[in-house]
Known about the structure:
The protein is mainly alpha-helical. 72% of the residues lie in helices and 3% in strands. Among the domains are: 37-190; 339-392; 398-438.
Amino acid sequence: MYEREESPNSSMSFQQRRLLRSVSKAMLKQSLFELWHEDFRKTDTCFEQLKISEISCSLLSMIGFGSSAILYDLSYDDYTANEKSFVIDCLYFICSISTLLLLFEIIWRTIKEHRWEQAKGIFTASDTIVTSGRIYWLIFEIMLNCIHPIWFLGDETFSYYNAKYNVMIAYSYNSIFTIICALRIYHLIRLFSVFSKYRSGRSQRVNHLNGSYPGISFTVKSLMNQSPTYGFVSMLMIGILVSGFWIRILERPIQSESKFEFSDYGNCFWYVAITMTTVGYGDIYPTTLPGRIVGSLSCIWGILSVSMMIVTLTQALEFESGQEKAWILLSRLNFKKKLQEQAASVIANAFRYKLYVKKREIEKEVRDLQLGKVKKEIYKFQRLRFKQRAMYGIDSPRDRLDKKMNQILKEHIEIKAYLFSICNTLRKIRDKTQESET
């Protein structure tokens, strides 16, 4: 007799077979050939957590920058520094604690953004912050945001020679750190982009359908295309405020020799404004090398800001193919909601006028006033309808040409059928004549 060969599974216990079955199912779920399906609830939860992290980063960055700016003003004068030493120590503590919390918050925000992208299917579940390439931007952010005024460097300075006035200019290390703290304003741009309608759940789904990513770049382009004036004013104001703050710190130590009152914020903002617009009256100007560098950067930023009004209409802010489709789709959806609200307003005003007509005790002036409102709302609705035609391309020259072409094709088919029927009739007549002759 032949012995029966035992299978490997026969010696396994029930628990072992169950474990093997669960592992096989898990491997099947992680197969490359399995289609990915987005869990919208998980995606929305991750995005809400990302919003909270952006708010926290913005608040902590502004607290750190504000405390460093106040700290610079209080520490600049030795008499004020000695008189308000307790306030200065408190500001050092607030600046350091807010910076430390900001670093932890940046790491937490990066993790939440990575998890949100995993929920969106941009990265797989096995991807990490390192494999996705986010680690480089995270390191850069940590290095940028960790710089802040430190209490043990309060009296430490460095000097350089100014050839124009033949003097040595002394800068404190903390003043340079305060200049770098002003760069934390980029957290506000991230915050505004996250709460924009162009980064909402609907926008994410529309971009996903069109093969694009609804990131900060898409949000800024959408806002600039929607309202270029606001974008221009925002760029101009950011340049004036940041550059004016830098000029004040860099030119203040030499104002006794240059006789330019750069300790006043108004003079600093005035100089930056006339520099950014390339006017340059020459009534006030920087005399230090760092101040001139900031002035040159302000001039370049001003040229870019002014030219942005033209650039938004041409090549600089053109959408990609997928982004343009998503933006058009979102504009149509928002316009549809606006059209519905206007139609409801027309119906409500017309119904109110009908009630006024039924009630005889209402004065004629009130009825005429309500009738004017109805006409006004109807006029607004008609304007929206015309705008809808232009937006959806209804009754455009191309549509009219297509209609005429379709009409010509239809007439061609009818004429062809009519000629075919005539040919059949003539063929029948010919056959009958041939039969009669025979």
